[in-house]
Design a protein that fits this description.
Elements lengths: L28 H22 L7 H4 L21 H11 L3 E7 L4 H17 L3 E7 L6 H6 L9 E5 L5 E5 L5 H5 L5 H11 L3 E6 L7 H12 L8 E6 L5 H6 L10 E6 L3 E7 L4 H15 L12
Parallel strand pairs: 1-2, 5-6
Antiparallel strand pairs: 1-3, 3-4, 5-7, 7-8
């Protein structure tokens, strides 16, 4: 996740996109569901086209941020066809990260990165597995296609949290220090996993130091369960005192004094922020207003992984 990007010249102004919120559009209640679905579908299409979080797919120009390596098809137990996919699944069950290195044999940079993997395994092996993948290996063809890396600059390293979310991607050789700094909190991984599944994420920031916790949480729970979102929304509860990285990635520079709901749409754009006591309908209205004001410009970039 990175801070919210600047608004394009001439784009409508609102607080979440860099200026004042536009007035809420007048629309009939029966149209809200279709408007929200249309906006989320547009965001999902942008995610597919961009390869995730506003980046081109690796075949054009690989990104150093996770999300550009979002799978071309969703993984399920029935599609774990390769040895590496099965190793990733085992690591996830054990609560470990997976570092997956895609390489071509006998290339200098790839061989150097394989050496880095061996050294990193000695230091980080208790909480991660290190999995080199020769992109020419027939047994790994399905995995190579899944992440669309055949034409990507190599070596390419994907870092996956235990829940399967890609939290970091390196498109060049890096050292053990960089690999060791790739771990994220469980809440960040939870949010990224939902975004990579093309779902809207509502992050409810609250803790012992925030006010209106009960009202905010209830509104967020009812919001994600609203039929107009069709089950395509996820709630992530997070204590802001323990989630400095999440706050930084979303451009929040100080601890909130009131419980705050953040709305993030694929591929990772923070489109709305609601602090204090609120209701489900107020959250829905805020989402509709934000998507109407920002349009497709709200989709790429934003609150996405680094």
């Amino acid at each position: 996740m990175v801070p919210i990007s600047k608004v394009r010249p001439g784009a409508p102004k609102n607080r979440e996109c860099g200026g004042e919120m536009m007035a809420e559009p007048r629309m009939r209640r029966e149209n809200v569901r279709w408007f929200v679905w249309g906006a989320l579908a547009l965001a999902a299409l942008i995610l597919v086209w961009a390869g995730g979080w506003g980046k081109r797919p690796p075949s054009a120009k690989a990104s150093s941020r996770a999300g550009a390596m979002e799978p071309s098809r969703a993984a399920s137990p029935n599609t774990l066809a390769t040895p590496t996919e099965r190793a990733i699944a085992r690591a996830g069950r054990d609560g470990k990260y997976s570092f997956v290195l895609f390489y071509r044999p006998r290339e200098q940079a790839s061989e150097a990165m394989k050496d880095t993997f061996r050294r990193a395994n000695g230091k980080l092996g208790a909480k991660a597995v290190f999995l080199p993948v020769d992109i020419g290996a027939k047994a790994e063809a399905a995995l190579v296609e899944k992440y669309r890396v055949r034409q990507a600059p190599l070596p390419l390293t994907l870092v996956m949290a235990p829940n399967g979310a890609v939290v970091r991607a390196f498109t060049k050789a890096v050292d053990e220090k960089a690999l060791g700094e790739s771990f994220v909190s469980a809440k960040v991984a939870e949010a990224l996993g939902a975004l990579q599944a093309r779902k809207l994420v509502a992050v409810c920031l609250q803790g012992a130091g925030t006010r209106h916790n009960a009202e905010s949480k209830q509104a967020a729970q009812q919001f994600i369960a609203d039929a107009r979102l069709g089950g395509q929304a996820v709630l992530v509860m997070a204590d802001p005192r323990k989630e400095a990285d999440l706050l930084k990635r979303c451009g929040i520079t100080s601890l909130p004094l009131e419980s705050t709901v953040l709305m993030i749409v694929p591929p990772g754009r923070l489109v709305a922020r609601v602090a204090g006591a609120t209701t489900k309908d107020a959250l829905m209205a805020k989402l509709v207003t934000a998507l109407a004001s920002c349009g497709p410009g709200c989709s790429p970039g934003g609150c996405a992984p680094r």
